[in-house]
């Protein structure tokens, strides 16, 4: 028989738990009395602060943070506090290991058992609206829900993933993702955004296996979009961006052809380049993944009559875009959908996507181009603002 030491540890813990203490936890000595957090105390400045790890309620979970991605939202908040959250512990693309949980915690939000040592991610914190707590695509989106890492500071302080520990309160969504490696787990949140976008695109009835699809914008969002389309079996993908490095990456994620908009002067020439990349055809479907109003206005030109568009680039207000409704939508009969964040169900789909992407050899983990320890979080955010890499992550030892 081949029992690994980690298995033995798990068995011992389970036996100890069954003897019936109120709280389940890893060996108490392994949990320190305090946790560091990266507190954004003013614009462009995180302070590493230390707070006591509080007692757990019966439904609470204490997670030792392993890593957390830096999101564009974090960068906006870091730069000028547009969400008026300061002081705040940011970090919502995090993952870590359960080290302690209240006696009533048994299962995750998908019904999978939870135990000490399991790796988890959180999704959103329920309020009282049942429509956003459903695993149902037809229910409303999560616009009204809270997430860890974007919560106002409170007396517990362990509210975001840019920290050593995070306190997951009862009633939050939590998923057991022990079967995914750390890099994949750090990418779950942004991938869920794209799973949702593709689900929205599918509601048009236009997106098919043999569709010609253009993806405009090759930041992490556009690149993940390409990886998802490829993983679904869509072969004919053209990526559009202004950075050669990002376009190379788009090929790695499964784009068949790329178009650098800087090589083409004016929208007519750019449209011709996109058409050439598809062998003389316009796109059946387009994903708009930039926050640029001009890019939004341009993308209609790349789409054939009767085609479809999913707009998902404007997670913040980037201003008005000018289109011509006669040429761009009406006479072409373009079907347009918007996409916003994700649902719980998209989260579950994302876990499977990450495994399938690896299965077909897409190097998804390469999206994480920079890793910083927690005490270099200011440098991490500055690197993000300089747009030097793709996904920047904070990774704890
Ligand atoms: Zn995010």
Which features does this protein show?
2 domains, binds zinc ion, 397 residues, alpha/beta, eight-stranded mixed sheet, six-stranded parallel sheet, Quinone Oxidoreductase, Chain A, domain 1, Rossmann fold
What does this structure look like?
The chain is an alpha/beta fold and 397 residues long. The protein folds into 2 domains: 5-179 and 363-395, Alpha-Beta Complex (Quinone Oxidoreductase, Chain A, domain 1); 192-338, 3-Layer(aba) Sandwich (Rossmann fold). Helices cover 29% and strands 25% of the residues. It contains 11 helices and 17 strands. The protein has helices spanning 5-19, 72-80, 182-186, 188-202, 220-232, 244-252, 266-277, 293-299, 325-330, 344-359, 377-385, and strands at residues 24-25, 34-42, 45-52, 61-70, 88-89, 93-101, 119-125, 165-168, 172-176, 212-216, 236-241, 257-260, 283-288, 303-311, 335-338, 368-372, 391-395. The strands form 3 sheets. Strands 1, 4, 6, 7, 8, 9, 16 and 17 form an 8-stranded mixed β-sheet that branches. Helix 2 packs across helix 11 (377-385) and helix 4 packs across helix 10 (344-359). It is elongated and about 65 Å long. Residues 16-20 have low confidence and may be disordered. Zinc ion binds next to loops.
Count of discrete structural domains? 2
Low-confidence stretches: 16-20
What's the overall geometry? elongated
CATH topology of the largest domain: Quinone Oxidoreductase, Chain A, domain 1
**Portion of residues within helices:** 25-40%
How many helical stretches? 11
Order of helices and strands: HEEEEHEEEEEHHEHEHEHEHEHEHEHE
Distance between the termini: 32 Å
* Derived structural class: alpha/beta
CATH class of the largest domain: Alpha Beta
Q: What proportion strand?
A: 25-35%
CATH superfamily of the largest domain: Medium-chain alcohol dehydrogenases, catalytic domain
Output mean pLDDT: 91
The molecules bound to the chains, other than polymers, are:
zinc ion
Overall radius of gyration: 22 Å
Instruction: Count all strands and give the number.
Output: 17
Please state the second-level CATH architecture of the largest domain. Answer: Alpha-Beta Complex
Largest sheet: 8 strands, mixed
